Structures are given as structure tokens and as C-alpha cells.
């Protein structure tokens, strides 16, 4: 069995994945990702999870209210997902700590990289909700910023496609899968699977990003071994 390429990672899970088939909060999906995270942790990976919130609400899909308010609703949606994932991990016997860029007393304390690092050192999985806490910034960018602040070696973006394509494979059957490309190539091609701001920040710090299909058993560990997904870096 191939060894790990990275032993510390930030996993970005979209709300769409957590919503599963019976969303907005699908028990089967939450339990599945709790098992995937548990497997990675037991393999020796120090793991942080940044979650999206699109299964509950997307700020961009609320045109009838001001954008800043829409983004706040989206960030709060990620906190709901964080609470749900915390409970799924606890049920699976995985020690974890939930932090939020929008702290909520009695639910999640504010994001503090030093407290998060201490939790990781204790062997806990760290969950980070509410993105950066600022409007007009995606959770992709939050995942990159958190990875840099926590000293993670890679960002893993879980998706429903097996990697980065030249076009949307659901619309273009001729779309080409890129096994590997540089940050600059990703940006110059204008690809859409990741927020370009996130890729630009990662490029400036030499942080690799792996885009992989996360809704398959063993996919997370396969991505950490370099056996699945597209590598940007």
C-alpha cells in the first residue's frame, strides 16, 4: 500500500456533499464523511475540515436581500453544517473541536489558530465554520488561508467530479481531465472548480491543492496518498 504524500491537510467539504440525497442535512452523507475522516485520522493524518453551506443557503442565490446579508446567511449555513458534522464525528468516536469565524456562544468558539493548533496536537479533528467571517470571500479561500495559518501541507477540495477538467464534464463529454497542472496554468485557463482567489493565494505560498471526488469510499485516504484527484501545484 502506498504511503501518505501528506500527513497534515485541510479538507474542504462542500455543502452539496453534506446535503447528500436527503438534504439539506443527510444522515447518510454525514455518517459517510465521519467514517472517511476517521480513517484518515487513524492513518496518522492531522486533519482540519472547512465546510461549505450551499446545501442550506447560498448568498448568491438570495437576490432579494443585500449581498452582505446574503453572504452572512451563507456563512451561518456553514456553521449549521459544522454542528451536524461535529455530532457525526462524535458518534463515530472521533474527538473534534468546532471553531467558527462567526462565534456563537454555547455552540462554537471563535477561530483562533493557536487554539486550533493545540487541538490538532491533542489528536483532535478541527472543524472550521463560517469561512473567513467576511462577505465576498469564498470557503475555498478560507480553506487556503486556514491551511497556511495552521501549517497544513495541502488543501484537499472534495467534489463530485474526479478532478479538474477543461470544461464542465456534465455539459461537455469531451472535457479533458488534468491529472496535474501548476497554479499559474489553472489561473491562465480560467478554470472554475476553485475560486481563483484561493488558487492565487496558494500559488504565492507554494501550497498544493488536490481536487478529488469525495463521495466514494476510501477517496479521502486515496487523495492523501496521491492516488486520486488532480494536483494543482
Characterize this entry briefly.
Helix content is 39%, strand content 19%. The protein is an alpha/beta fold.
The biggest beta sheet reads: 9 strands, mixed
Number of spatially distinct domains: 1
Q: What's the CATH architecture?
A: 3-Layer(aba) Sandwich
What's the quaternary structure here? single chain
What is the averaged pLDDT score?
95
Our estimate of the beta-strand percent is 15-25%
Please name the CATH topology. Answer: Carbamate kinase
Order of helices and strands: EHHEHEEHEHEEEEHHEHE
What order do the strands of the largest sheet run in, or round the barrel if closed? 4-3-5-2-1-6-10-11-9
- Would you report the number of β strands? 11
Name of the CATH class: Alpha Beta
CATH superfamily: Acetylglutamate kinase-like
Instruction: Specify the overall morphology.
Output: globular
Helix residue percentage: 25-40%
Radius of gyration: 16 Å
Backbone structural class: alpha/beta
Any low-confidence stretches, pLDDT <50, length ≥5? none
- Taking the alpha carbons of the first and last residues, their distance comes to 24 Å
**SS element count, helices:** 8
Features:
233 residues, alpha/beta, Carbamate kinase, nine-stranded mixed β-sheet, 11 strands, 19% strand
Amino acid at each position: 500500500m502506498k504511503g501518505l504524500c501528506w500527513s497534515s491537510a485541510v479538507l474542504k467539504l462542500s455543502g452539496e456533499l453534506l446535503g447528500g440525497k436527503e438534504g439539506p442535512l443527510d444522515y447518510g452523507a454525514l455518517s459517510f464523511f465521519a467514517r472517511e475522516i476517521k480513517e484518515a485520522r487513524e492513518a496518522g493524518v492531522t486533519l482540519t475540515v472547512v465546510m461549505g453551506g450551499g446545501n442550506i443557503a447560498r448568498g448568491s442565490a438570495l437576490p432579494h436581500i443585500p449581498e452582505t446579508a446574503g453572504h452572512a446567511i451563507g456563512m451561518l449555513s456553514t456553521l449549521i453544517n459544522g454542528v451536524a458534522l461535529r455530532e457525526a464525528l462524535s458518534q463515530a468516536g472521533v474527538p473534534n473541536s468546532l471553531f467558527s469565524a462567526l462565534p456563537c456562544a454555547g455552540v462554537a468558539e471563535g477561530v483562533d489558530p493557536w487554539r486550533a493548533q493545540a487541538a490538532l496536537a491533542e489528536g483532535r479533528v478541527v472543524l472550521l465554520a463560517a469561512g473567513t467571517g467576511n462577505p465576498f470571500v469564498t470557503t475555498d479561500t478560507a480553506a487556503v488561508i486556514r491551511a497556511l495559518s495552521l501549517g497544513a501541507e495541502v488543501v484537499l477540495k472534495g467534489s463530485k467530479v474526479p478532478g479538474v477538467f477543461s470544461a464542465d464534464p456534465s455539459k461537455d463529454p469531451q472535457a479533458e481531465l488534468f491529472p496535474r497542472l501548476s497554479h499559474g496554468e489553472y489561473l491562465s485557463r480560467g478554470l472554475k472548480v476553485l475560486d481563483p482567489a484561493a488558487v492565487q493565494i496558494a500559488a504565492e505560498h507554494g501550497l498544493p491543492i488536490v481536487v478529488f471526488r469525495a463521495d466514494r469510499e476510501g477517496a479521502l485516504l486515496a487523495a492523501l496518498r496521491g492516488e486520486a484527484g488532480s494536483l494543482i501545484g
